[in-house]
Write a structure and sequence with these properties.
Order of helices and strands: HEEHEHEEEEHEHEEE
CATH superfamily of the largest domain: D-amino Acid Aminotransferase, subunit A, domain 2
CATH topology of the largest domain: D-amino Acid Aminotransferase, Chain A, domain 2
CATH architecture of the largest domain: Alpha-Beta Barrel
Distance between the termini: 29 Å
Strand content: 35-45%
Radius of gyration: 18 Å
Largest sheet: 9 strands, mixed
Number of helices: 5
CATH class of the largest domain: Alpha Beta
Length: 198
C-alpha cells in the first residue's frame, strides 16, 4: 500500500501510552489505523474501545462457529495479507454467525479451501499435528498464528471443509482471544483437546 506511519517509533509509543491510559476500564482494546491521508500525508488514528474477553465457559467449553461457504475470499486479491478497513464480507459473515448464535464464521477461498475466521486465524488438530492454512490461501498473517509457527507448534498446510469434519479439535486465534477452542460447528459438537500455548 506504500503508506508510512507518519511518526517515529518513540512518538508512536508515547501516543499509544497516552490513549491506553485514557482507555475504558477494566479491559479495552486499542486499534492503530494508518490511512493515505490528504495531500499525500498519511493520517494515524489510535482508538480505544471497551472489550470483553471470552468468558471462562467459552475458554473451557469452546465457542460456536459456522461455516459460511458462499462469502469467498479471493486469495489473489490486492489486499490479501493486509489488515485493511475493507472487510465488508467478513462483517456480513459475522452478522450471519450472530444470527445463528455463533461467535465466529469460518470462510473459504475461491478454490473452496479453508482460509480463516471472519476475525480470527484457524487451527485444526489432525493426524500428524496442528495445522493452519497457508498465507497463499488468503489468510491474514496473525500475530498469535505467527508466534505458534515460529515456536514450531503449528504447520502451514492447505485445508478443506473435509478437514473440519475429521478434525480432533478446532481453534481460533487472534491477539484479543489468544487461542480459543471451537466447541460446536454448525450446531454439531466437536472433539476438544488442550489449546497450544502461544
Amino acid at each position: 500500500m506504500e503508506i508510512e506511519i507518519p511518526e517515529d517509533r518513540t512518538a508512536l509509543a508515547a501516543a499509544v501510552a497516552a490513549v491506553a491510559s485514557a482507555a475504558p476500564r477494566p479491559v479495552a482494546r486499542l486499534r492503530l489505523t494508518v490511512t493515505r491521508g490528504a495531500g499525500g500525508t498519511p493520517t494515524r488514528l489510535l482508538a480505544a474501545a471497551p472489550y470483553e474477553p471470552p468468558g471462562a465457559g467459552q475458554v473451557r467449553d469452546g465457542v460456536d462457529a459456522i461455516l459460511v461457504p458462499d462469502l469467498r475470499i479471493d486469495s489473489r486479491g490486492p489486499l490479501i495479507g493486509l489488515k485493511s478497513l475493507c472487510w465488508q464480507a467478513n462483517r456480513l459473515a459475522l452478522l450471519r454467525a450472530g444470527r445463528a448464535g455463533a461467535f465466529e464464521a469460518i470462510l473459504l477461498n475461491e478454490n473452496g479451501r479453508l482460509v480463516e475466521g471472519a476475525r480470527s486465524n484457524l487451527l485444526l488438530a489432525l493426524d500428524g499435528g496442528l495445522f493452519t492454512p497457508p498465507l497463499d490461501d488468503g489468510c491474514l498473517p496473525g500475530i498469535v498464528r505467527h508466534r505458534l509457527l515460529a515456536a514450531g507448534r503449528i504447520t502451514e498446510r492447505p485445508l478443506g471443509p473435509e478437514d473440519l469434519a475429521r478434525a480432533r479439535a478446532v481453534f481460533l486465534t487472534n491477539s484479543l482471544i489468544g487461542v480459543l477452542p471451537v466447541g460446536r460447528l454448525d450446531g454439531h459438537a466437536l472433539p476438544r483437546l488442550p489449546p497450544p500455548d502461544p
